[in-house]
Amino acid sequence: MLQSHRRRLLGKYGGFLAFVLPAMIIYTIFVTYPLFGGTFVMSLKKYNVIKGQSSFVGLQNFITIFNSADFWTSFVVTIKYVIAVVLAANVIALLLAILIESIQNKFIKSVSRNLFFLPYIVSGLIVGYLWRFMFTNVWPELANLLGLTKLASVSWFGDYSMALLALIIESVWKELGFLLLLLYCRSAGNPHRCDGGKRAGRLFRCTADVSHRDPHADEHNQRQPVSQHFQRI
Question: Are 203 and 194 in contact (CB under 8 A)?
Answer without folding.
Answer: yes
